[in-house]
Recover the amino acids of this structure.
């Protein structure tokens, strides 16, 4: 059952001119799975009101004792421009959560979790890192993260702190950079990241083109455990 609640904005971090991180403190905090999403509205409503215009955002944090939620939002069109203009520290927004089936494997605590992130598609994987760390299973996670330029990587210090060099592969597609692999992610990169690629779980979050391209390539290898987070 989804919860509708007001949430206070505790902080806003500007990563780039187009990408901001928001920390929210909901009045009603409830359990959710890593990888799920919420609906955010700028209107103040409660559960008995007609649900107003809103947008969907991945929960970029896992259930935590501080009872806060992290969102990473890219300014893309009309509503996210309103969010950038109107939401600041101390603002109140309404959220409805949690939804989605882009969640970690329920019955498998052993095989690799291979995550493919394109740009802001990194957001659900922050909650995967937190959840797997809490379950002492973080070594199962491999993250292949692609961005146009190095400066577009979000919370890279955090990812480097949590993941070792074998677990975090960074790709830049529009910039030569010593720190990264300077090309797009290939199917071979994905398969080589897994210790047993036939049994691994593949989670993909990026543009529709990014998602469908990898889905097709991995399905051609007869891989079955492929999960997409479709934003469009
Ligand atoms: C499950 C799920 C999870 C998501 N998680 C996130 C997340 O964590 N972070 C995040 O930032 N987004 C996320 N999204 C996307 C988000 O919900 C919005 O769809 C997105 O932010 C666009 O909303 P908007 O109102 O700004 O754009 P809208 O005005 O609704 O426009 C929709 C699209 O049209 C394009 N568009 C709009 N105006 C123009 C224009 N003038 N010229 C060309 N193109 C235009 C924009 O690129 C935009 O993508 C998620 C979506 C889903 C379904």
């Amino acid at each position: 059952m989804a919860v509708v609640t007001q949430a206070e904005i505790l902080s806003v971090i500007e990563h780039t001119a187009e990408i901001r991180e928001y920390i929210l403190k909901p009045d009603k905090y409830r359990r959710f799975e890593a990888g799920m999403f919420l609906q955010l509205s700028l209107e103040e409503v409660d559960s008995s009101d007609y649900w107003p215009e809103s947008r969907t955002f991945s929960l970029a944090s896992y259930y935590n004792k501080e009872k806060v939620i992290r969102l990473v939002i890219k300014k893309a069109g009309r509503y996210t421009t309103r969010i950038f203009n109107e939401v600041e520290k101390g603002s109140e927004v309404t959220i409805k959560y949690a939804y989605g089936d882009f969640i970690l494997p329920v019955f498998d605590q052993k095989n690799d979790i291979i995550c493919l992130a394109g740009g802001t598609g990194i957001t659900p994987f922050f909650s995967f890192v937190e959840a797997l760390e809490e379950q002492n299973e973080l070594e199962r996670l491999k993250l292949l993260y692609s961005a146009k330029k190095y400066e577009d990587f979000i919370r890279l210090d955090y990812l480097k702190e949590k993941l070792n060099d074998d677990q975090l592969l960074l790709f830049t597609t529009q910039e030569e950079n010593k720190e990264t692999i300077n090309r797009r992610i290939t199917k071979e990169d994905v398969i080589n990241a897994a210790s047993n690629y036939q049994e691994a779980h593949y989670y993909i979050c990026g543009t529709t083109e990014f998602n469908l391209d990898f889905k097709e390539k991995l399905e051609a290898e007869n891989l079955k455990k492929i999960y997409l987070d479709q934003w469009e």
Remarks:
- The domain at 113-228 is CATH 3.40.50.80 (Rossmann fold).
- The chain has two domains: 3-99, 113-228.
- Residues 37, 55-58, 72-74, 76-80, 120, 123, 229, 231 surround flavin-adenine dinucleotide (CB under 6 Å).
